[in-house]
Amino acid sequence: MKCSDRQVFGTTTVNDKGQVVIPADARKALGIEPDMKMMVLGHTKHKVVILMPTELFEKKIQGLMGLFFKNDETA
């Protein structure tokens, strides 16, 4: 199922070690490479897990911090 840039890639199963396999189609479409570091984010109330490349997460945080300190005269 695909709707603009949002896509459902199928299902996976959590094994007894808590590991999941990201489907090959998802890895290809999202540019996920072996040994890539990922942030694991979640929403406990809604039981949602989000994977985000660490590099992208760090850029987002830097942007947020830049906005937060935008008017800081001491920097």
| Residue windows where pLDDT falls under 50 for at least 5 positions | none
Q: Classify the oligomer.
A: single chain
Label the structural class.
alpha+beta
Q: Could you describe the largest sheet, including whether it forms a barrel?
A: 2 strands, antiparallel
Number of helices: 2
Question: Helix and strand succession?
Answer: EEHEEH
Query: Mean pLDDT, as a whole number?
Result: 89
Radius of gyration: 17 Å
Termini, distance in Å?
47 Å
Global geometry: elongated
**What is the share of helical residues?**
25-40%
In order across it, which strands form the biggest sheet?
A: 1-2
How many independent structural domains? Answer: 2
Question: What tags apply to this protein structure?
Answer:
single chain; alpha+beta; 2 domains; two-stranded antiparallel sheet; 29% helix; elongated
Would you write up a description of this structure?
This protein folds into two domains: 1-32, no CATH class; 37-75. The protein is built from two helices and four strands. The chain has helices at 24-30, 54-68; strands at 2-3, 6-7, 38-43, 48-53. By secondary structure, it is an alpha+beta fold. β1 (2-3) and β2 (6-7) form a beta hairpin. The strands form two sheets. Strands 1-2 form a two-stranded antiparallel sheet. Strands 3-4 form a two-stranded antiparallel ribbon. Helices cover 29% and strands 21% of the residues.
Would you spell out the secondary-structure blueprint of this structure?
Blueprint lengths: L1 E2 L2 E2 L16 H7 L7 E6 L4 E6 H15 L7
Antiparallel strand pairs: 1-2, 3-4
